[in-house]
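Supplementary notes for students who missed Thursday's class. We covered one full example, reproduced here. Read the sequence, then the structure, then the short commentary at the end.
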Amino acid sequence: MSDLTLGGAGMAAAPADGGNRYKSVQSKLEKLGKAMDDAGLELEALRRSMKGNAAHTHDVAGDIENADLDAKFVVMTNLVSVALGGAAVEVKRLCDSAQETADRTWEAKRTHSRLYGALDDIRSNRPEKTPRPGFFNR
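Structure (token representation):
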């Protein structure tokens, strides 16, 4: 089994509260970015482990063959090695996808900040209440 856990330490799910205020969106993007960065690191560790296990299993198949044991055990052990190697390739693809998602999340956070950060500063520091977006569109 793997050491991967869902929702590791410090990874709280972003609530789907419909909150679309600037700080709420920034916070959710921050949590998503960190979660995807962490997932990428854990997936890379899993890939390395699987690749190492595939190599070790291949060596074990050679040892079984050298010990003149039944050929079916050599075949089965080689199949396990190939399966682990194939799974490691797919985990690498998943790791790349997680990293791409993390990169795009950080880019979205920066873009959101650039577009709406100044407006939030103005609205947050005013003593008067300001109308919500869409108020005048009625």
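Commentary. The two ends are 57 Å apart (CA to CA). The chain has a mean pLDDT of 87. If anything here is unclear, bring it to office hours.
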